[in-house]
Amino acid sequence: MSAVESKLAELGLTLPEVVPPLAAYQPAVQTGVYVYTSGQLPMVDGKLAATGKVGAEVTPEVAKELAATCALNALAAVKSIAGDLDRVARVVKVVGFVASATDFTGQPAVLNGASELLGAVLGDKGVHARSAVGVAVLPLDSPVEVEIQVELTEA
Description:
Mean pLDDT: 97
Largest sheet: 5 strands, mixed
Low-confidence stretches: none
Radius of gyration: 15 Å
Shape: globular
Strand content: 25-35%
Number of helices: 3
Distance between the termini: 17 Å
């Protein structure tokens, strides 16, 4: 077991299977030493964990947990390319989308779920730049979607 997967286990988490694409794209692609993931939804065992708008049907606290699930799915996508999460040199960028009620402005706090998970799992390698964007609707009526870019060490 890799050091990163040992850390996940220590945190009571298991790396899921890669979420299959919902349309015409790949879960992740590599160019040079970088891996870019597609947007990851909070899928658990093949099902969306929640639906609705944050600030209406979904509380910000639940949305923060869902963002962490998205980040975990993104790590699974990275592993599918890298072979081993110990090859992650650093998370470079996180982009998160929050399906928001019209008056909801707490997108950064929601995306902290993803950022905090990456930091807990990867330590200093998980520190990253980030964008948190409020949107009207996401695929399957998901409350959140997260994509990450990571730099890998040489194999």
